[in-house]
Each structure stands twice: as structure tokens, then as C-alpha cells.
Design brief:
By secondary structure, the chain is α/β, with parallel strands linked by helices. It is 43% helix and 11% strand. Strands 1-2-3-4-5-6-7 form a seven-stranded parallel beta sheet. The protein is globular and about 45 Å long. The chain starts with a helix and ends with a helix.
């Protein structure tokens, strides 16, 4: 919940990364700024931060997946850790939202991740696997991305190690193969305090197909550096 017309315009002015067909970049601005962002930076894909499970009706304050498609969105983030904690979203509700998004033709960015308490208790693999299993039934793999968010490494000063990142991405990919089969190509993104300083090392991790960038995306300069790190990794 950041941004203003002025901030969006400033971001667009400072964005100077040449786009490549090999790397897709999407920006997930708050709903009121989606149209402005699409007008100022049409070369970037649009993502929304959430959608309703319903298609239409008497649901005041909600935004449907179909409305997001009308705005030109290609992606929608679902089950972000802040939605799970602040709005109390359950695995069942998140599954409904994934289905609603895909029915409208959106690619769902399904977020999964464990708390610090779960990590300390050694339950991190079980919890992430459970979150995935609850959401994958009936899902179209071609319209799905998974983002791993270690909640304990977001805005806490704690950082996930390379070994921890690779371990959890292997768990996620294992669940995806178990559900969709060996030929699945669902991208798995890392989303735990990605910055310009650590992006290259994260992209070098086995099983990391991209990044879900939080606070560092508010600055066009830092987000551009992260994008450049992604491009560099593709050229290795």
C-alpha cells in the first residue's frame, strides 16, 4: 500500500532498463494506479496485488479478476504473507482466488512461506507443502507461478542463506512435480527481502526462476539493478 500519482510518474521517468524477450518484468502497483502505470510504462507487464474469489455481484470493496483483465493485467499475486496474516486469509480462500484468477485468464502468483516460529520448530517444509497442496487441485499449470516467501526474512533483518533458499525451492519443485508431473515448467520465484545487493546471488541459487520483489521495487533505481541481475544470469 505505497505510491501516488507523483511516485508512479517518477518511477516511470527513472526506469531505463532495455527490455529483453528472455526476461519478463511485471509491476504490481495498487489497484488505483494500474491504468496510470500501463500508460507510462507499457513495456512492463501489469500485475495486481490481489483479487476477489467471486466473479461479480454484491461484494462492496472487492475487485474481480475479470476487472483486472479489463485493466490489462496479466498477473495477480494471491496469498501474499501479508494477506494471510493481516486479513486472515485461509488456504481454502486462497485456492478459490487462484481458480477465479485463472478462469479470467490471469496468471496467478501463488505465495507460500513459513513463519520464524515454524522455521525454528523445524516445520517449514511441512507448512509450505501443505499450503501448496491446498491450492493446486484443479489448477492450470500454464497459468501458475509460485513465490516462496520466508516470512521471517521479510523486513526483519534476517536473511535466508543460499542453502535455505535452495532447500525450500527444491521442496516446492518436488510438490509441483508430484502434482503436475515431471514435465512441469511452473516458475518458482524467491520473495524474501530481495535487494539490488543480493539479487545476483539469489538468481544463482538452484531452483530460483525469478524474484518477487517487495520494498526494493519502490525505487526504479534499485528495481532496475535487480532486473539487470536477472538479465545477467540469463546470459551466463
Amino acid at each position: 500500500m505505497n505510491g501516488s500519482r507523483e511516485a508512479i510518474a517518477q518511477f516511470a521517468e527513472q526506469w531505463a532498463v532495455p527490455m529483453s524477450e528472455a526476461l519478463q518484468v511485471a509491476v504490481a502497483v495498487p489497484h488505483p494506479y494500474l491504468q496510470l502505470m500501463s500508460e507510462l510504462l507499457p513495456q512492463l507487464a501489469l500485475a495486481a496485488q490481489d483479487c476477489a474469489p467471486e466473479e461479480k455481484g454484491a461484494h462492496t470493496g472487492q475487485v474481480s479478476a475479470g476487472m483486472l483483465v479489463d485493466w490489462g493485467c496479466q498477473f495477480v499475486i494471491i496469498g501474499h504473507s501479508e494477506r494471510r496474516s493481516d486479513q486472515g486469509e485461509s488456504d481454502a480462500l486462497i485456492a478459490e482466488k487462484v481458480h477465479a484468477a485463472q478462469r479470467a485468464g490471469l496468471k496467478a502468483v501463488l505465495c507460500v512461506g513459513e513463519s520464524h516460529a515454524a522455521r525454528e520448530a523445524g516445520d517449514h517444509k511441512t507448512i509450505v507443502s501443505s499450503q501448496l497442496q491446498a491450492a493446486l487441485a484443479g489448477v492450470d499449470a500454464s497459468l501458475l507461478l509460485v513465490a516462496y516467501e520466508p516470512i521471517w526474512a521479510i523486513g526483519t533483518g534476517l536473511t535466508a542463506s543460499t542453502a535455505q533458499v535452495e532447500e525450500m525451492h527444491a521442496v516446492i519443485k518436488g510438490e509441483l512435480v508430484s502434482h503436475f508431473g515431471n514435465d512441469t515448467s511452473v516458475p518458482v520465484l524467491y520473495g524474501g527481502s530481495v535487494t539490488a545487493d543480493n539479487a545476483r546471488s539469489l538468481f544463482d541459487c538452484a531452483g530460483v526462476d525469478g524474484a518477487l520483489v517487495g520494498g526494493a521495487s519502490l525505487s526504479a533505481a534499485s528495481f532496475s539493478e535487480i532486473t539487470q541481475a536477472g538479465l545477467a544470469q540469463l546470459q551466463v
